[in-house]
Amino acid sequence: MKKFKIAIVGATGAVGREMLRCVFQFNFPFESIKLLASARSAGKEIEFEGHKFVVEELTENSFEGVEVAFWSAGGSISEKYMKYAVEAGCVNIDNTSHFRMDPNVPLVVPEVNGEALVNHHGIISCPNCTTIMMCSALTRLNDEFDIERIVVSTYQAVSGAGVAGMEELYRQSQEVLDGKEPVAKTLPCAGDKKHFPIAFNCIPQVDKFDLSNGYSKEEMKMVNETKKIFNKDIEVNATCVRVPVLRGHSESIYIETKKTIDMDKVFELLGNSTGIDLCDDLANQVYPMPTSFIGDELTHVGRVRKDLYKDNALSLWITGDQLMKGAAYNSVDIGLKMIELGLLK
Ligand SMILES: NC(=O)c1ccc[n+]([C@@H]2O[C@H](COP(=O)([O-])OP(=O)(O)OC[C@H]3O[C@@H](n4cnc5c(N)ncnc54)[C@H](OP(=O)(O)O)[C@@H]3O)[C@@H](O)[C@H]2O)c1
């Protein structure tokens, strides 16, 4: 099997670190790995699985000879530098939001719409973490019952805001335990006017708001990306909330379908879906929680129950490590799917 010269852009970040781990754990065939980050990290040594890597500064010339690059350094970095990688002939799997709604860029969750990869022009986008997990959990139900409407509330971990989000929760928790006032520097959104403590709190804002419609950017990502991935006009109503969990997003999801729902079929489908772990046994209090699944690549589904009033509606609860299933693993899985489809040579 061919081995590829790969790069990880944003390798020192919360997602980038997991990308390196996923390359090894899921056997992405590599000949060499280049770790790229900002000038702040240039020269830093990272050891993994017996390999020693030296982080390099990302520049316009970083991609000469690189065949596949996994990006997670932020949308503005992808916007500025990815064109140089495409020019150098590198295939780019982008974890940022920058290219997601570009009609020329496939937006892919491999087990949902892997076939969209054939239309790539050097850039493939990974959806938003909450969208990946939701679409993965719902894809077989959509095939069978034809989903028309989704109402979702998220419970998003601080690591969704990167290394800075995690540091904020640790530091603020200690400040509260020490009897001090917690100092908020980053959340809910690094670029917004105000910051609020996340320790012992929850914040109904993830990313900035669109004041014209009352939804946050994160909520509108779930709306727009879900339509693109399922390639149909599903109605999505999302409320995204940051909670004081270190790692692992959860979502409470309600769906309405065109066809009547058969719950035996629902459990059969969820029990046999790629990427899904059905974790639902109420008698024994079995349901998914974020701390149970740190570091794994699955979407865990539980609390599956039919609506009390409608034959075409149900609710479920999903949890997953968003740094893995919602970001790093989905990126590497896209690369593996491209190899399987003969799209990386
Ligand atoms: N965290 C999640 O759960 C998640 C999920 C899905 C998607 N994403 C997306 O993934 C991206 C990264 O998120 P993250 O959580 O990993 O953030 P993070 O922990 O803050 O890491 C950011 C990374 O980008 C690098 N970087 C920053 N400025 C740079 C520059 N000018 N040139 C080159 N590299 C630069 C940083 O390098 P230094 O260490 O040198 O600063 C670091 O490696 C974002 O677009 C985010 O929206 C994140």
UniProtKB/TrEMBL annotation:
NADP(+) binds at residues 12-15, 40-41, 159-160, 322. Keywords: Amino-acid biosynthesis, Diaminopimelate biosynthesis, Lysine biosynthesis, Methionine biosynthesis, NADP, Oxidoreductase, Threonine biosynthesis. Pathway: Amino-acid biosynthesis; L-methionine biosynthesis via de novo pathway; L-homoserine from L-aspartate: step 2/3; Amino-acid biosynthesis; L-threonine biosynthesis; L-threonine from L-aspartate: step 2/5; Amino-acid biosynthesis; L-lysine biosynthesis via DAP pathway; (S)-tetrahydrodipicolinate from L-aspartate: step 2/4. Residues 5-120 form the Semialdehyde dehydrogenase NAD-binding domain. Substrate binds at residues 156, 242. GO terms for molecular function: aspartate-semialdehyde dehydrogenase activity; NAD binding; NADP binding; protein dimerization activity. Its EC number is 1.2.1.11. It catalyses: L-aspartate 4-semialdehyde + phosphate + NADP(+) = 4-phospho-L-aspartate + NADPH + H(+). Phosphate binds at residue 100. One of its GO terms (biological process) is lysine biosynthetic process via diaminopimelate. The active site is at 129 (acyl-thioester intermediate), 249 (proton acceptor). SUPFAM superfamilies: Glyceraldehyde-3-phosphate dehydrogenase-like, C-terminal domain, NAD(P)-binding Rossmann-fold domains. CDD domains: ASADH_C_bac_euk_like, VcASADH2_like_N. Gene3D superfamilies: Dihydrodipicolinate Reductase, domain 2 (3.30.360.10), NAD(P)-binding Rossmann-like Domain (3.40.50.720). Catalyzes the NADPH-dependent formation of L-aspartate-semialdehyde (L-ASA) by the reductive dephosphorylation of L-aspartyl-4-phosphate. PANTHER family: ASPARTATE-SEMIALDEHYDE DEHYDROGENASE, DEHYDROGENASE, PUTATIVE-RELATED. Homodimer. HAMAP family: ASADH (MF_02121). Belongs to the aspartate-semialdehyde dehydrogenase family. This is Aspartate-semialdehyde dehydrogenase.
